[in-house]
Amino acid sequence: MHIVSFDDWFKREANNENICFLCGNQLDDKNKSDEHIFPKWILKEFNLWNVPLTLLNKSRFNYRSAIVPCCKKCNNTSLSDIEKEIKSGIDGGFDYFVDRVSRESIYKWCQLIFYKILYKENFLKENIKLKESKKIISEEQFANLKLNHLFLRSIDKDVEFVDFLPGSIFICKVKTSDLDKSLNFDYMDAVPEQCLAIRINDIGIIAILADAGLQELVKTEDYSKYTSHILAPIQFKNLFANCVYQQMLFRDPFKYKIEFKSSDKLSIERVPKDNFEGNVYEQGNSTDHSQLLASIFNCDPNQFYMGEGLTGSFFFDDNGAWKDRAFEDDGTIKNSVEYRI
Ligand SMILES: [Zn+2]
Fold first, then answer.
1. What's the pTM?
2. Alpha carbons 45 and 67: distance in angstroms, whole number
3. Cα of 67 to ligand 1 centre, how many Å?
4. pLDDT tens per residue, range 199-229
5. Which of 16, 38, 45, 63 is 20 to 30 A (C-alpha) from 89?
6. 75 C-alpha vs ligand 1 centroid, how far in Å?
7. Among 41-45, 93-97, 114-118, 125-129, which is the least confidently predicted range?
């Protein structure tokens, strides 16, 4: 039995444009291909070819050029399989997607997009005109993604998660625009918290990639007061912000036990950390929550801060009833008090 260590798997995809971002194999003219960060079927359907994608440092590149190096084998087999599964799920609409696409596949697909963006950013300089400029993603930050990469390898290798999913997934129904189809796609992420949100047609997906599934376990019932409605884009964004805030309060009680079974097979087990004490989620406060909302909505935190323990939202009206907002609602309408810690 040939045992490959976790580090060996990761080492192969060190910052190098001549290796496949997924399997780490060397690329040459024969096996090299481009893998789009956002799959071509999305670019085509939502006409995003020339739409700029804003990076962490606020610089922009087009979706069209948002590609990472990938070998033909990964591109045409494991990656194309997962794209096919997600695409057919999304084409089927919200109910079909929820019923038919496995949570594991949704998780992998989200992890894949998140990872490809960071992988791409690892190649880009903060300022492409200055040669000595720091990379957008530091090597340290990239090293923190080792576990993401390991989870990702479940796409092309036999990786078994023993009785858990590495993250939480929330799926909600969202409103769509009849006027401009390209508005029916949106992507947002919070890199340090490893959270992302994808709005695609009437399906809204929020993924917390590295919480061992705990937010889903703890908050699904609470969030049903939002997810039982059809959300306007601004409400979907608000829910994403709340998920990110929850994750900012997270203290991981687990460590991961990795068992290599062969060069193509491993299992990952979630085990309690020794000496973990206290709560998994720290106590939140409205000052921090309002500040996060303000940075996501690009406005003044006072628009959300409603006094200690109360944070405004776009979900309810002044009487506490659900507020049905239009697709186009941009949030300039007064907030209602809602969030109680
Ligand atoms: Zn490959």
1. 0.88
2. 18
3. 14
4. 999 999 999 998 989 999 999 999 999 999 9
5. 63
6. 7
7. 125-129
